[in-house]
Structure prediction request, 249 residues.
Amino acid sequence: MITITDVHKIFNKGKANQVNAVNGISLEIKNGEFLVIVGSNGSGKTTMLNLIAGSVLPDKGTISIDNADVTKLPDYKRGQWIARVFQNPLSGTAPDLSILDNFRLASLRTKTKGLSVGVNDVFKKQVQEKVASLGMGLQDKIDQPMGTLSGGQRQALTLLMSVMDSCKVLLLDEPTAALDPRSADVVMRTADTLIRDFNLTAVFITHNLKDAFNYGTRIIQMGEGGIINDLSGTERASLKQNDLFDWFA
Ligand SMILES: Nc1ncnc2c1ncn2[C@@H]1O[C@H](COP(=O)(O)OP(=O)(O)OP(=O)(O)O)[C@@H](O)[C@H]1O
Prediction:
């Protein structure tokens, strides 16, 4: 569980251009919850994700993950809990290395779920099986440099690699914003499957209201650094796509 208590983040404090990007948010994100965050530009979504990731530290308030207080821990020390996929497909992988070597690198970085590193043929076969599960035909290309793949293919592989380590929390920062609709669809379906298979707690920022409607177990709308809508359970289940569009009317 991620517990966020009265968290504030102020940029340019005391200056004329001061911004209260996150303004006293309290939020509990349960284990296995798939939280979607929507909101207009500048409403504080990315700052919120950065606060959870530890790439931005709060001015006030506390954040804990599984009852461990991580408020002052920088992002590299939250790696045991958190994996993050960014908007840019180029940011998650090494372009000159093959798919296989990228997986090898990822598995050396952390203890990788379901892969036995060291035995080459066994490892290769396991990677092929994992990659085949994406349904993109990439299992026949695992010796090919990552840089030769399309953005959608790379983003799907980045997702797969990031959730295979020991993480419990997956942060998705507009992971499909740079992709064409078909690749975006594959990446979102992959994310959804992986979140379920590994029982991850996920936080997904998107401007795509169709994705916001189709995915997730809970939806939050941010506005001016606060939460202005928060639906889960039966309320989320009975939400209509048009209701979501009305939030932005
Ligand atoms: N490092 C920073 N320095 C100064 N101001 C910042 C910084 N990061 C964010 N802000 C400001 O904080 C506010 C919230 O920004 P944030 O990026 O969290 O919004 P967002 O909801 O993710 O927006 P978008 O949908 O455009 O990505 C904005 O006014 C932004 O300009």
About this structure: Helices lie at 45-53, 99-109, 120-132, 151-163, 181-197, 209-214, 233-237, 241-247.
